[in-house]
Design goal:
heterodimer, A: 503 residues, alpha+beta, Beta-Lactamase, 3 domains, 9 helices, 12 strands, 52% helix, B: 226 residues, Arc Repressor Mutant, subunit A, 2 domains, 5-stranded parallel beta sheet, 4-stranded antiparallel beta sheet, 8 helices, 40% helix, 22% strand
């Protein structure tokens, strides 16, 4: 079974989504908060109202106590009657030591539990109310008077109760509504996101199944899911490109190695046909070695690129004076260029020595590859070109903002704009050049070296011809001392030699 | 010349041994690092050829060990490890030259002979002479007979290297390494063209050629015919 074999697609349910869970938790938190706030406010209001009632009852009790003290029972009864007749909001019951009701507008004394403060709440039916009316709530206190009398003063608190009940009802209803709306929003939201995620899941399954061209769907909102999809799509683009590259590489390896291997085999076979030590036998073996060397070169170049792409040459880098290096290489190739019927020109546009941090060997090989390519592809077919009419290969070093650019330009056939990207890839030998010798790894090796030095490689039209631009970050200042040169010093230092020449 | 080949791959070791014998050198084989170290310590060799990856004791440690003991026998490292810093590591450990596998036998023999020759106390000579060609290292003058020859700086270094190793084969790779200080394989005939330019200056107008091409190997400065 493939490691990425798609598991059976399980339809995602909205309640399993993060969005829905988040919405549910938010709704719950909101409901709890609302409940706590409303309960607190109600409690506080209720307490304040209760305190006001109690103090009012206390005042009334004290007043009636004074009246009794001054004028005895008669005065008290008169005062009570007067208050009742005046439509006072209070309820009164006066009982004697034998628990008989002497006066009051309450039908019977309230049977509420009397607490330490001598009061409580009770239900009663107002005298003027019909029997089918619901009982009302009252709060009352009992005041003990001399001679065993007990006066209960109460007050109707039905409005307060109604208010409390209404508040509680509203609170319950509100919370229910809140939960409903919150969960509905959660469902809607998660459905929406689920739909998009399902789209992405479907796309990624299709990609896993081998459809590498498939991409994750996007909307136009540029939200976080879109941005995620965009970056995943970019990753898929890169992977697809790499896969295509791999495929191309293996196709090309097969093609490019089959031919020389075949030739090698034929030569060995032809050599066998001659008698041992004969001229054809010898030539056959020599050619066989030559072919094997070419194959080895190709493999070495491939291996080098693979290693370079894996990175890790940082500790082999040291300051390199790029101007001197380019000059050395131009000078190294100048005779070969001339031999090929070309003129090689070299120009340093930097006024002062410019340094780059580089692995000298790799950078040297990269620049050498560029010059070799130019010689290989720009050489005129005709050797008898007059000396002053030779096509020119120019190597120019230009310092740019924080970087140094090495341009190798020729007057050869160039590379068509649409082929330039491909030319930088491994083994990409454009059809036109398939007949020329070489591994087809030159430019991709240079590109790998450029990447390794945080630089870049660009192909341009030289009108006519090809211009290759290798750009490398410039070093601020050269570090002298034992800055880990790539090689232990040779017996005669290059620097000393240079100086001797200048003098 | 007596050479010790420390190499665990029997086929390679015997290939090298046979090549050295054909070039009239004596060659012994050690198939692992510890045996190699013991033989190298016993001494009597003009040159050691050391593989890097060896059983029991790796090549670099072996070289470091004998160098620490004051053994100055020239060492040629022969290795399949060809990454850019493998070479630097090898030379830092005390190797004198580094050749990457696969290699051409001619290349190996040429390097062995040049290395072993270098062992003789480095001549402090200021002049190299081959036949009637004289190179003065102090004045940077080159004379062939009574005729003064004007050379470009790099041509001078090229001739200097060839003359220092006169009578020895030097390969194109050795020239690229020692005169230009680059270790890559050039795809074109860069070195040959430089040699033919140099030849044009020092040999063309004289009856006796001094700079010879050695077929399948490289070049050699030599006076007279063999």
């Amino acid at each position: 079974m493939l490691p990425f074999a798609p598991t059976a697609a399980r339809p995602a349910r909205f309640w399993r989504t993060t969005t829905f869970r988040a919405a549910a938790v938010a709704t719950l938190a909101l409901a709890i908060t609302a409940f706590l706030v409303v309960t607190f406010v109600t409690r506080a209001t209720n307490d304040a109202m209760s305190r006001a009632t109690i103090s009012e009852l206390d005042r009334e009790g004290a007043a009636l106590h004074r009246i009794y003290g001054r004028g005895g029972l008669d005065q008290l009864l008169r005062a009570l009657q007067g208050r009742i007749d005046a439509g006072d909001m209070h309820l009164y019951t006066l009982i004697d030591a034998d628990k008989r009701v002497i006066a009051g507008n309450l039908a019977e004394p309230p049977a509420f539990p009397v607490d330490s403060r001598g009061g409580g709440t009770f239900r009663y039916r107002a005298p003027k109310d019909a029997a089918d009316m619901p009982e009302r709530l009252a709060a009352g206190r009992v005041f003990a008077l001399p001679n065993g009398l007990a006066l209960t003063i109460a007050r109707d608190i039905e409005p307060q109760r109604t208010y409390l009940a209404a508040t509680n009802r509203t609170l319950g209803l509100g919370i229910a509504l809140l939960a409903l709306v919150g969960l509905a929003a959660g469902v809607a939201l998660s459905r929406l996101i689920l739909k998009r995620v399902d789209g992405m899941t479907a796309a990624s399954r299709s990609i896993m199944a081998g459809n590498l061209a498939e991409r994750l769907p996007r909307t136009d909102t540029d939200d976080e899911l879109d941005r995620l999809a965009a970056s995943l799509n970019a990753m898929l683009d890169r992977i697809e490109l790499l896969m295509a590259g791999m495929k191309e590489v293996s196709d090309n390896i097969a093609h490019d190695l089959k031919t020389p291997l075949n030739r090698l085999r034929n030569r060995a076979e032809a050599a066998l046909a001659d008698q041992r030590g004969g001229p054809a036998w010898r030539a056959g073996l020599e050619n066989t070695i030559e072919d094997a060397d070419e194959l080895m070169k190709t493999f070495n170049a491939l291996l080098l690129i693979a290693r370079l792409e894996a990175g890790a040459v940082e500790n082999t880098k040291a300051p390199v004076e790029i101007g001197a290096m380019v000059e050395d290489l131009a000078e190294l190739y100048e005779p070969a260029a001339e031999e090929a019927g070309l003129a090689l020109e070299w120009h340093d546009a930097a006024g002062a020595p410019v340094y780059v941090r580089a692995n000298r060997q790799l950078l040297g090989q990269a620049i050498a590859n560029l010059i070799e390519n130019a010689i290989k592809y720009a050489a005129p077919g005709d050797d008898n070109v007059a000396e002053n009419h030779r096509p020119t290969i120019s190597v120019v070093l230009t310092p740019k903002q924080g970087a140094v650019e090495i341009a190798v330009a020729d007057r050869g056939p160039g590379i068509a704009a649409e082929d330039r990207d491909r030319a930088l890839r491994r083994f990409a030998r454009l059809e036109a050049s398939r007949t020329k010798p070489g591994t087809g790894l030159g430019l991709s090796l240079v590109a790998a070296v450029a990447r390794l030095h945080e630089g870049s490689l660009r192909l341009e039209d030289n009108r006519p011809g090809l211009r290759v631009l290798l750009s490398l970050p410039m070093m601020a200042a050269p570090v002298t001392g034992d800055a880990a040169d790539n090689e232990p010093p040779r017996e005669e230092g290059e620097g000393a030699w240079r100086k001797a020449q200048v003098n | 010349m007596r050479v010790l080949v420390i190499e665990d791959n029997r086929e390679t070791a015997q290939f090298v041994q046979r090549g050295l014998r054909e070039a009239s050198h004596a060659a012994e084989i050690a198939e692992d690092g510890e045996v190699g170290l013991a033989l190298a310590r016993a001494g009597g060799y003009d040159l050691l050829i050391v593989d890097r990856m060896l059983p029991h004791l790796d090549g670099l440690t072996l070289i470091q060990t004998i160098r620490a003991e004051g053994n100055r026998t020239p060492v040629l490292i022969l290795s399949a490890m060809s990454h850019v810093d493998d070479r630097v590591k090898g030379l830092r450990a005390g190797g004198d030259d580094y050749l990457t596998k696969p290699f051409a036998l001619a290349e190996l023999i040429a390097r062995v002979e040049v290395l072993a020759r270098r062992r003789q106390p480095e001549e402090q000579t200021t002049r190299y002479v081959v036949g009637d060609l004289i190179l003065d290292r102090l004045t940077h003058k080159v004379m062939r007979g009574s005729e003064s020859i004007i050379l470009q700086p790099r041509e001078f270094r090229l001739l200097e290297y060839l003359m220092r190793n006169a009578g020895q084969v030097v390969t194109r790779t050795m020239l690229l390494e020692n005169v230009w200080d680059y270790h890559f394989d050039p795809q074109t005939n860069v070195i040959d063209v430089h040699i033919s330019r140099l030849r044009g200056k020092i040999d063309r107008n004289f009856d006796r050629p001094l700079l010879h091409t050695v077929r399948g190997a490289g070049y050699m400065m030599r006076d007279g015919v063999e």
